[in-house]
């Protein structure tokens, strides 16, 4: 990004506190999610992690009724929040959050490519790209880049926990899954910068026996 560096951004911690309930888990190497695990909060028959024969027909019907009611509620909410002409986004100029003195040969404006969704899609090819998505989400708050980063993280089955301000991903099939929560082993991204006690770090960690309550699930961009 123009006139701002990673070192300058990292020097100022993200103003998002760590909740004491989320004790640090074991660091793990970055890896792509398994396509067989589904995503947090998706409660269809195929994503519960249980054998299909063990799920009764009444449970399936109950889930279908729940989804239908949810869709009706969303339609009702959308009707009362129809877009207005004043909602059109105005052109915004880029202002560096951490300006730095640079020589004239250094780019003085933000590269147009960072506003291209295709650029962010290509970042998902390797693990370093995933770290870049997390960096954009936490250090470019309230920007179009943060929105595009969150969109790509969700494509990788990451889901945002509003209580811990942290992204989670299933590490294995949940041991328990209900309409209110699921419990099992998860990967979460520790967005804090590493310090001397090694309890924090810009890395992915694994958390066992964790209960993800769906009322804390941010499932919209």
TrEMBL record:
A Pfam family recorded for this sequence: NOT2_3_5_C
Region annotation (Disordered) ranges: 1-39, 83-108
One annotated Gene Ontology cellular component of this protein: CCR4-NOT core complex
Positions of the NOT2/NOT3/NOT5 C-terminal domain: 79-217
PANTHER family attached to this UniProt entry: CCR4 NOT-RELATED
Protein family according to the UniProt entry: Belongs to the CNOT2/3/5 family.
Biological process per Gene Ontology, one example term: regulation of DNA-templated transcription
InterPro entries named among the record's database cross-references: CCR4-NOT_su2/3/5_C_sf, Not2/3/5, NOT2/3/5_C
Keywords in alphabetical order: Transcription, Transcription regulation
Provenance organism: Hevea brasiliensis (Para rubber tree)
Protein name according to UniProt: NOT2/NOT3/NOT5 C-terminal domain-containing protein
Biased composition range(s): Low complexity: 23-34
